[in-house]
Amino acid sequence: MSRWLIMAGIALVVLGLLVHFAPWLFQWFGKLPGDINIRSDRSQLFIPVTSMILISVLLTIVLNLFNR
């Protein structure tokens, strides 16, 4: 269990460093077809449906590879 927590922590640190120092790598996130973005005069609603499905599929594949 502790090994997984350490690996998850390292992965989060690496992801955080990438987002901080190379934000252009993630400009596609939230702009995929199927992501909902509704704007009105005073508010905005953003639901990244397609982006979240893509991340879910990628995480499922990675976790299944680690469990084998």
Overview of this protein structure:
Keywords: Membrane, Transmembrane, Transmembrane helix. Pfam families: DUF2905 (PF11146). This is DUF2905 domain-containing protein. The structure is a single chain. This protein is mostly helical and 68 residues long. It has two domains: 27 residues, no CATH class; 38 residues. The protein is built from two helices and two strands, in the order αββα. Strands 1-2 form a two-stranded antiparallel sheet. A hairpin with a 4-residue loop joins strand 1 and strand 2. The longest helix has 20 residues. The mean pLDDT is 90.
**CA-CA gap between termini:** 16 Å
Low-confidence stretches: none
Based on secondary structure, the structural category is: mainly alpha
Radius of gyration: 16 Å
Defining key terms:
single chain, 68 residues, mainly alpha, 2 domains, two-stranded antiparallel ribbon, 2 strands, 57% helix, membrane, DUF2905, transmembrane helix, transmembrane, DUF2905 domain-containing protein
Summarize the structure.
With 68 residues, the chain is mainly alpha-helical. The chain has helices spanning 2-21, 49-67, and strands at 36-39, 44-47. The longest helix is centred in the N-terminal third of the chain and has 20 residues, at 2-21.
